[in-house]
Description:
Layout: H1 4-16, E1 21-22, E2 37-40, H2 48-68, H3 71-77, E3 80-82, E4 88-90, H4 93-98, H5 101-111, E5 112-114, E6 118-122, E7 129-133, E8 148-155, E9 161-162, E10 165-167, E11 172-174, E12 181-185, E13 192-194, E14 197-198, E15 202-211, H6 214-217
Amino acid sequence: MLDAGTCAAIVERIRGSDALQPGRIGGGVFPELKRSRDLSLAGHPAWADVEQALNVAVYGGLLGYLRRYPQALIAPLMLQQPGADGAPRRLSADDLAAMDDRRLGELARTCLRPGAINLQWYRDGEGGYPYWHCELHPRDAQCETLHRHLLWTVYLNDGFGEGETEFLFQQRKVAPRTGDLLLAPTAFTHTHRGNRPRGGDKFIATSWILFQRAEKLFAGA
């Protein structure tokens, strides 16, 4: 979803950044669980171009994902649209399949929103996120973490051994390839970990696709 030249340029900017911080998880900094150097793009105007490029890439991937898994929108939201007689009618998977990209995109943007993007640098033989985890957790007074619907990762480089994203219950390891986008549900069913790279450093961009908050989704309901 992202060309190799763009990925390489992002990697070089990460290497040269003085804004990197120890990688955090939901409860804070625990290097025994996750060891990385991270940069959150939120509040960094100098990285706005990178943020835009990544969001555009993920948006394209999201439309493909929703075509393959239309229940990602239909199941949690019971979406409706006016029927031929003007009365509300529940949307079905066939309805989403019949939408062009413009209409499907409008629906996706109405229901979903992008999360803050985090750039991560895992050093050869040292960095990793070996702790089995999912992306939903309640340690957030605003409940933003409970609005996470899909996780995503864009792999910014390859050419090293291991370093896969490994899913526990699916018994699957996803090997990084430059420019590839990984999308998956955020709940415990897709518990995963980031294996330690061997023979080279690993660079990724990660975030979530969140539901719009209830006060926006159901305003006036």
